Each structure stands twice: as structure tokens, then as C-alpha cells.
Amino acid sequence: MERPTSENPVLEAIYARRSVRDYTEEEIPRKTIYEIIRAGTWAPSGLNNQPWRFVIVADQDLREKLAELTRYGEIIKRAPVVIAVFVDKDAMYHEVKDHQAMGACIQNMLLAAHALGLGAVWLGEILKNADQVRNILGLPENLELMAVVAIGHPKRRDQKSSRKPIEEVIIKECW
What we know:
The structure is a single chain. The protein has helices at residues 9-16, 30-41, 60-67, 73-78, 95-115, 130-136, 166-169; strands spanning 52-57, 81-88, 119-123, 143-152. It is of the alpha+beta class and 175 residues long. It has a single domain, classed as NADH Oxidase. Strands 1-2-4-3 form a 4-stranded antiparallel β-sheet, sandwiched between helices. The protein is globular and about 50 Å long.
């Protein structure tokens, strides 16, 4: 099945974005990382509480320590930058809504990375060691790890993906 296309730049970015797990060694400017985080902060959140918090990790030694906490450690080691994304439990008002907001935040970050010519991947398997991640980064217990986003210049851009047909995922229509 071919990837859908659109004349709309937002839809085109959604359809074209892929999870990128292999990167060149080219560095990423700090202002670009800030722009990706800024895009994340523009996600919707209930009561506009904006519960997201971020740790930028470009330091190789620190990335190596984080890499030991997941079976996808090679991705963390190869990425020039990873961003650990946390929810601030003190800023939360509704667990489900705030966790949904965190997903929207991370998706915004992935789309921003794509729009800026970078590749990124949302790593969640590391959540099994969330407390260790928080301890390595020296963070308080009110911060709960939601994901680690690895970011870099893609080594290749030929990733393929597919989705179920729309008829398969719509279970009922009530026009």
C-alpha cells in the first residue's frame, strides 16, 4: 500500500514521518534541539497545565549509561542527542488526560524533528527502568519518565511503513 499524499504540509509531514533509528555522526545545533522541545510544549494539555519536563542528553558518557537500561541501547549510543521526556506529577490534575498530553507532546517533537530534516524515534522500552533513568539524571521523584526520544541526522531515508485500511479501523459511523 502506498503512502498517502496531500497538498497540505501538516498532513504530508504526518504521512512522511518515520521512526529513524540510525544516524550519522553530524552534530545537531542546540537551537534545533530547543525548537524540537518548543514544538513539544505546544501540544494540548488539560487546563493548559503543560506537565512536560525535558532533559537533553548529548554527553556520550551519560548516553552510554542510559543505553545500558534498554535493549535498544545501540540507538541511544548512536544518536547525537537524546531527550528524556518526563511528566511532572506535581503539575498533573488527571492521570489519563495528562498522560494523553504527554503522547501529544512527544508526537509534536517527532514531527518537528522530521520537519527540520532530522530523524527521531520514540523509545518506550526503557520505561521498565524509569527509576534508574531518573537517578542517573539526578532528578526528583515527582518526575515520571514517559519516553526517551533519540534524534539525529538519518543515515538513510528509505524507511517504509504501512497502516491498516481506514475501513478496518472505523468500527461505527453515526453521521
